[in-house]
Amino acid sequence: MDQESEGALSHLRASEEAINFLASIDPQELSHCLFGDELMTMSRDGTHLGEFRMRVYSAPYREHPDSGGGTRFLVHATSKGAINDIPCGTTVCAYVTTNLATLEQHHHEYLELNEQALDRKVELVWQEESLLVNKVVTEGEEVLRESVRLEMSHLAGFLSEASCLLLTRLLTRRAHVPHDLTFLCLDSESCLATCTFRSLGTEELSIGEKKVEVFGIERTLYSQTAPPTTWHSYYLLDGHLVRREQVGSPTTMMIVRLPAQTPAAEEAEEEGDTDSGVEQQTLNWEEDMQMYSRFLDRKEELLSEHAEYARAHPELRALLGDFLQYLLLRKPADPVACAAPYFASFSALDRDIPSTRSPPTPQSTTDATAAASPGDGVVA
Q: Residue 74: how many CA atoms within 13 Å on its side-chain side?
C-alpha cells in the first residue's frame, strides 16, 4: 500500500467498544448460532422475487487445519432471484474464527442483463500480516482484475460480510447492542469503510397465524464514495432471521416458516432418516446370504467414507447447492455445457491467489442477507 492510500485509511477506525466486544466473545456462545435460515424476497405488492438461504457450520479450515488451534466456522449465504425477469444473485462463503476474524471469504455476484452478463467475484485471504483482496469483474467480454493488500495495522475491528452474520446472531441472543459499536468493513466496491450497529428493541411480528417476539438491529454502512446505506433486520430471540429490509428499498425479506425448535431437529429434517432398510431387488445375488451380507458391509463402508468426506468438506453442499440454483434460474438446454464455464471461473480465480495463508491475530481481528446490489447483497 502506498503512502497516499495509507493516509486515506488513517481516519477509518473501529471503536474501542467494537474491538473490546470481539475480544469478549465466548466460543460457547457461537456454538448456539449453528443453524440455517430461509427467507423469501417479496415486492411491496406481494410478488415473490427470490429467496435467501444461510447456514453456519462448525468446520476445520482446509488450508490450515492446525494453525492457531480453536474452532472454525463455515458461513454460507446465498441470495437468488429475478427482478423484472432479470436473473441475479449473491453468494458468500467464508471461514471465520471464534473472534469473528475472517480467514478466507469468497463473494460472488451476477446480474444477467439481456445478452450482457455482469459477474463479480471478490476473495479475501489473510496472508501473514495483511488482508489480500482479489477482485475479478466480468462484463460481457471485458474482464477486469484487481488486487489490493491491506495492512494488519489498519484492520483492528474488521468484519467481513460473513462475520456480520454471526455478529447479528450473537447480538440477538444477548438481546443487547452496546453503544458506539462501529466496525471496519468493505463497501460495495471492496473499499475500506465503516459500519455501525444499533438496537431497534423488541416487538411482535405476525408469522402466518402466529405472533412472535423479535429483536431488531439496525446496521448502517458508511462508504467513502457513496451515501450511507441502512438495513433493518428482525430476529427471533434464538437468532433466527425473520425479516429484513433495506431502508428505501421496495423489497422485503420474510421468513418462509418458523424454524425447528433446535438445530439438531433442523439437521435431522434436512438430512432425513438414514436408518431405513435397504430396498429389496429381485436379483439372484440377494438370495445368497453371503453375497448379500458383503453388499451390506460394503455399503456401510462407503456411506461412512462419504459422510466423513462431507464432514471434512462442508463447503461441498454449499457449492453443489449454488450450482443447482444457477441451473434452475437459467434452465439451460444443456446443463453439462453450462457446468464447464461455471466451475472454470473458480479455478481461474484460484490461480491468481498465492497459497501461503495464515489467520490474523486476535488483536487485529474483527452481509450476507438479501438479494441486492454488488457488495451489499447479503450483508446483515
A: 18
- pTM summary value: 0.69
Contacts of 86 (CB under 8 A, 6+ apart): 111, 112, 113
List residues bridging with 40 in a β-sheet.
Answer: 51, 254
Rounded Cα gap, residues 371 and 357, in angstroms: 30
Residue with cell 425473520: 242
Residue 335, CA atoms < 13 Å, CB-side half-sphere: 8
| 162 pLDDT higher than 90 | yes
Assess contact for 72 and 308: CB atoms under 8 A.
no
pLDDT (mean) for 69-74: 78
Q: What is the three-class DSSP state of 282?
A: coil
- Write the DSSP assignment of 22-85 as a string of letters: HHT--HHHHGGG--EEEEEEEETT--EEEEEEEEEEE---SS-TTSS-S-EEEEEEEEEEEETT
Rg (CA), the chain: 22
Q: What is the pLDDT of residues 350-359, one digit of tens each?
A: 545 444 444 4
| 322: confidence class by pLDDT, cuts 50, 70, 90 | confident
